[in-house]
Design brief:
This protein is α/β, with parallel strands linked by helices. Helices cover 24% and strands 29% of the residues. The chain has a single domain, classed as 3-Layer(aba) Sandwich (Rossmann fold), CATH 3.40.50.150. The radius of gyration is 15 Å and the shape is globular. It starts with 6 loop residues before the first helix and ends with a strand. Bound molecules: S-adenosylmethionine (SAM). The site of S-adenosylmethionine has 15 residues, from loops.
Length: 174
């Protein structure tokens, strides 16, 4: 279910690469880098955060000479990720949800920066795979409300590649 990049990411990949002119891209809870690695191969500066050091090792190996900076951290230990605020051209979050982190994710973006967020809806609990714990599942209509300071550019809920997800593209006002 998670082999290649998300089609939602692919749809907005050029916009993300363009936003990197404003600042580097931050892949939050990057896992093995299914989005960070292709961006780095495109020459986009990317930093990947995850708590699993073995995933970050795999990610760096997959990136090879393209080079992705990685930071091992527990995103649920503090109110903000351990990176500078207001400097990121784009923030990516795929298949990860920790609601208390959302205000800090908005603060990471520089003016004009993009948030690309896709994760599971409560409907996923009826389907195969993915989380069952409501703490990791979005209610319908919830995701845009978690980012009240951002301008919503696109939002969609539904079955995407067999998974029930919400997809949000939002921008920090300039
Ligand atoms: C389902 S995977 C998604 C990975 C990647 N974003 C993707 O879409 O392929 C969830 C990721 O969140 C990471 N994660 C979960 N809890 C975390 C935490 N408290 N701090 C940092 N990373 C965490 C896991 O290690 C895992 O790599």
């Amino acid at each position: 279910m998670t082999a290649g990049p998300s089609p939602f990411f692919e749809r907005h990949r050029d916009r993300v690469a363009h936003a990197a002119a404003l600042g580097p891209v931050l892949d939050v809870a990057s896992g093995r880098g299914r989005h960070a690695v292709p961006l780095a191969r495109d020459g986009v500066p990317v930093v990947a955060l995850d708590r699993r050091s073995e995933f970050l090792v795999e990610l760096r190996r997959a990136a090879g000479p393209a080079a992705v900076a990685t930071v091992r951290c527990d995103l649920e230990a503090d109110a903000s990720p351990p990176v500078a605020p207001s400097r990121w051209g784009a923030v990516l979050v795929f298949r990860y949800l920790h609601r208390p982190l959302c205000p800090a994710l908005s603060e990471l973006l520089c003016p004009g920066g993009l948030l690309l967020y896709e994760t599971f809806l409560v409907d996923q609990a009826e389907l195969e795979g993915g989380p069952r714990n409501p703490a990791f599942l979005l209610e319908s209509g919830e995701l845009p409300c978690l980012f009240p300071s951002l301008e919503i550019a696109a939002y969609h809920e539904g079955l995407h590649g067999g998974a029930a997800t919400a997809q949000l593209l939002a921008q920090k006002p300039r």
